[in-house]
C-alpha cells in the first residue's frame, strides 16, 4: 500500500477546487481498505469516493482513503429478474450504461448522475421520478472503527429524500464497499411520468420507449440543463428542495401563488429550491470564479479557480437571502468539509 504525502485533491472532486491532502492512499481491495482503516499512525481518516457530492473548503489534515474498488458481477437471476453486484469504486453512469447494454432495467432514469456506485446510497440519489432505493437490494460496508464487514438491507438503510442512515444515525461510521441492485430482465417498468421525459419522447415520436430510449432522453435533458463537471466544476444540486409543514406552506402559497410545489403528504409540501434561488435574483450570477448556473439555479459552479471557501460563502449568502425573502430555510445537499 503506497501512502503519498501532500497530494492535490483537485482531480478527485467534481467542483474542481484546489485542496491539499496531508496523506493519501488509493485502495483497490477490501483487504487494503481494512488495512488502511486500521493504520495506527493516522488518527484522522477521510473516505473519498467519486467526489461528486463534496465541497472541500480547506486543507484536509488526515489520511484520505480513496475507495477504488472495482468489479461488476451477477449474484443470481431468474428469467425475469437479476441481482447484480457492483463494487463501490465503479463510476455510476458507466454502471448504468453497462446495465442498459445488457438490457437490465431499473436504472435508466438515473443516467448521467455524477459520482461512484458506493456513494449513491448515502444520499439516495434520485432523478426523474426514480430514487436509488427503488432498485436497491442491499449493500456491504466496512465499519470504520472495527474494520468489520456488515450488510445493510434496503430497510436498514432508512432511505428518505436525499437521505439515508449513512447521513444520520450512522454518519461517518461505515464505508460502503459494494451495492447489489435488483433489476428487471423483461417487462421493464418504464417511468416517463416526469414531465420533461414525456415531452422529450413525444417530440422524438417515441410511443413505447425502451430502457435505452428513456436513458437517452434523460441524458439529453440533463445535458441541456446541468453543466458537465468535466467542463465546468459543479456538484449537481447544491441544495435540497425544502420540505415544509402545512402552516409554513399556507403562508408561502398565499404570498407566492405562482410558485411550483409538490404535495408530499397531507402535512408536507416540497418547494423547488431552484425557483426560490432564481426569484431571490441569483440565477446566472457570478462572484469571482464562484457562480450560480445560468440554466439551473440549484447548481453552484466553479468557473476555474474558485476556492471551496468562496463557493461556501456564496452558498451561505444564498441561504440567507432565501430565508429573508421567503421565510424558508434551504439546506445543503452537498457534504461540506
Ligand atoms: N426551477 C426554477 N428555476 C431554476 C430551476 C428550477 O424556477 O433555476 C423550477 C422549475 O421550473 C420547476 C422546479 O423548479 O418548476 C423543479 O425544477 P427541476 O425539474 O429542474 O428539478 P429540481 O427540483 O430543481 C431535482 C433534483 C435533481 C434532479 C431533478 C430531476 C434535488 C435537490 N434535485 O431538481 O437532482 O435531476 O429534480 O428529477 O432534488 C442532484 O441531486 O444533483 C440533481 C441534479
N-to-C span: 26 Å
Radius of gyration: 20 Å
Uncertain stretches = none
What would CATH call the architecture of the largest domain? 2-Layer Sandwich
Class by alpha and beta content:
alpha+beta
The largest sheet has its strands arranged as: 6-7-12-10-11
In short:
With 337 residues, the protein is α+β, with helices and mostly antiparallel strands.
How are the SSEs placed, and which strands pair?
Elements: E1 4-8, E2 20-27, H1 30-37, E3 45-48, E4 54-55, E5 60-67, E6 72-77, E7 81-87, H2 92-101, E8 126-127, E9 130-131, E10 136-143, E11 149-153, E12 174-184, H3 195-203, H4 211-225, E13 233-237, E14 243-245, H5 246-255, E15 262-265, E16 268-270, H6 273-279, E17 286-287, E18 290-292, E19 299-302, H7 308-326, E20 335-336
Parallel strand pairs: 2-5, 3-5, 4-20
Antiparallel strand pairs: 1-2, 6-7, 7-12, 8-9, 10-11, 10-12, 13-19, 14-16, 15-16, 17-18, 18-19
Helix pairs in contact: 3-4
Bound molecules: uridine-diphosphate-2(N-acetylglucosaminyl) butyric acid.
Uridine-diphosphate-2(N-acetylglucosaminyl) butyric acid (EPU) binds at residues 127-128, 226, 236-237, 240-241, 260, 272, 274-275, 278, 283, 296-298, 333.
Amino acid at each position: 500500500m503506497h501512502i503519498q504525502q501532500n497530494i492535490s485533491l483537485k482531480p478527485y472532486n467534481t467542483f474542481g477546487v484546489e485542496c491539499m491532502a496531508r496523506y493519501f492512499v488509493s485502495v483497490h481491495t477490501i483487504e487494503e481498505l481494512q488495512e488502511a482503516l486500521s493504520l495506527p499512525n493516522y488518527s484522522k481518516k477521510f473516505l473519498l469516493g467519486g467526489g461528486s457530492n463534496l465541497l472541500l473548503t480547506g486543507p484536509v489534515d488526515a489520511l484520505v482513503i480513496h475507495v477504488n474498488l472495482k468489479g461488476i458481477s451477477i449474484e443470481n437471476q431468474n428469467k425475469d429478474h437479476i441481482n447484480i453486484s457492483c463494487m463501490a469504486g465503479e463510476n455510476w453512469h458507466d454502471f448504468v450504461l453497462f446495465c442498459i447494454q445488457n438490457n437490465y432495467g431499473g436504472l435508466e432514469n438515473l443516467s448521467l448522475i455524477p459520482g461512484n456506485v458506493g456513494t449513491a446510497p448515502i444520499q439516495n440519489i434520485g432523478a426523474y421520478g426514480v430514487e436509488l432505493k427503488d432498485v436497491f437490494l442491499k449493500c456491504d460496508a466496512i465499519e470504520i472503527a472495527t474494520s468489520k464487514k456488515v450488510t445493510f438491507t434496503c430497510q436498514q438503510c432508512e432511505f428518505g429524500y436525499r437521505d439515508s442512515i449513512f447521513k444520520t444515525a450512522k454518519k461517518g461510521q461505515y464505508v460502503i464497499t459494494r451495492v447489489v441492485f435488483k433489476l428487471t430482465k423483461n417487462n421493464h417498468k418504464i417511468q416517463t411520468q416526469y414531465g420533461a421525459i414525456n415531452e422529450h419522447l413525444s417530440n422524438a415520436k417515441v410511443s413505447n420507449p425502451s430502457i435505452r430510449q428513456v436513458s437517452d432522453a434523460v441524458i439529453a435533458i440533463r445535458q441541456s440543463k446541468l453543466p458537465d463537471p468535466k467542463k465546468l466544476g459543479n456538484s449537481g444540486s447544491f441544495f435540497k428542495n425544502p420540505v415544509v409543514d402545512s402552516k409554513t406552506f399556507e403562508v408561502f402559497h398565499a404570498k407566492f401563488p405562482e410558485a411550483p410545489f409538490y404535495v408530499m403528504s397531507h402535512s408536507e409540501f416540497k418547494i423547488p429550491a431552484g425557483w426560490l434561488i432564481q426569484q431571490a435574483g441569483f440565477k446566472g450570477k457570478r462572484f469571482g470564479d464562484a457562480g450560480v448556473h445560468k440554466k439551473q439555479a440549484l447548481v453552484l459552479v466553479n468557473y476555474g479557480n474558485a476556492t471551496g471557501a468562496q463557493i461556501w460563502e456564496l452558498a451561505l449568502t444564498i441561504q440567507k437571502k432565501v430565508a429573508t425573502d421567503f421565510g424558508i430555510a434551504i439546506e445543503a445537499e452537498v457534504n461540506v468539509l
